[in-house]
């Protein structure tokens, strides 16, 4: 199993600004744990997401000499993608493409047609900069706005964006509404139809519902999972009542049960967890 740790998603809705020095110390601990990828920051409007306004400073001070963990930065438009592409340290750019037009407008200030063109442009930028684009299919299992959704619509959107050369898609349960049968339906259809693409799961969940979501995705062939320590955070652009991220501890527990646990340094993981508790009080 590939495990992607998402501190950026954990702290982006945290209102007291976390000092840059604390972010750097925390991220440098996470880089030594053994995660596949670290979703560490965003190149977005400082006004929209002040918590990650120091991403450019942070990335320059990360210790990447002794780690195989790759860096992923979230971008919301072409300008952010261009900025992210100037940093050699960053391997992946992540763009949230929502099935729900309501959320796309709230999250990136673009309608779906505009968002398709952004993906086209970002993929070209990534190819020119030797980076990879990860497209997050936001509201991938339904939405709270009454916008159209179905497994077929999710598949159509993936097909539309894959034609630009995008190879990695992460299906996002942005507000924690996914049911196991929908998760199975979406992943089974996509993985069967496009074995040449990599599909991941970015679940938000309540504490009691995590296992059924992970189990449904895993049984359908998904092996890429996003998480955040303590299940902290959520998307502040989606709704007022945040639904936490998938707890990384639960993903590690599940991977261990399936004998697919990556080589994780438990000692450093414990240090990172304790330090994160200090940061968020």
From TrEMBL:
Residues 1-265 form the Pyruvate carboxyltransferase domain. The keyword Transmembrane helix does not apply. Keywords: Lyase, Metal-binding. Gene3D superfamilies: Aldolase class I (3.20.20.70). One of its GO terms (molecular function) is hydroxymethylglutaryl-CoA lyase activity. One of its GO terms (biological process) is ketone body biosynthetic process. The keyword Metal-binding applies. Belongs to the HMG-CoA lyase family. This is Hydroxymethylglutaryl-CoA lyase. It comes from Persicitalea jodogahamensis. The gene is mvaB.
């Amino acid at each position: 199993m590939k495990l992607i740790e998402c501190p950026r998603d954990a702290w982006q809705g945290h209102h007291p600004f976390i000092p840059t020095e604390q972010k750097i110390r925390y991220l440098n601990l996470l880089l030594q744990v053994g995660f596949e990828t670290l979703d560490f920051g965003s190149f977005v409007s400082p006004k929209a997401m002040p918590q990650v306004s120091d991403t450019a400073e942070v990335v320059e001070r990360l210790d990447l000499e002794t780690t195989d963990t790759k860096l992923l930065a979230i971008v919301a438009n072409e300008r952010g993608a261009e900025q992210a592409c100037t940093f050699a340290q960053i391997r992946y750019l992540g763009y949230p493409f929502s099935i729900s037009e309501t959320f796309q407008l709230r999250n990136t200030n673009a309608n779906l047609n505009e968002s398709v063109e952004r993906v086209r442009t970002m993929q070209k930028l990534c190819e020119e900069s030797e980076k990879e684009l990860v497209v997050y299919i936001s509201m991938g299992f339904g939405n709270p706005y009454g916008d159209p959704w179905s497994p077929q619509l999710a598949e159509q959107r993936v097909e539309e964006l894959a034609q630009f050369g995008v190879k990695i898609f992460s299906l996002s349960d942005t507000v924690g509404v996914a049911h196991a049968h929908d998760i199975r339906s979406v992943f089974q259809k996509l993985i069967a139809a496009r074995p040449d693409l990599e599909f991941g799961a970015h679940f938000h969940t309540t504490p009691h519902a995590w296992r059924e979501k992970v189990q449904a995705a895993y049984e359908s062939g998904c092996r890429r999972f996003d998480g955040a320590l303590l299940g902290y955070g959520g998307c502040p652009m989606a709704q007022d009542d945040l639904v936490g991220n998938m707890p990384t501890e639960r993903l590690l527990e599940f991977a261990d049960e399936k004998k697919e646990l990556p080589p994780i340094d438990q000692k450093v993981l414990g240090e990172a967890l304790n330090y994160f508790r200090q940061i968020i009080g």
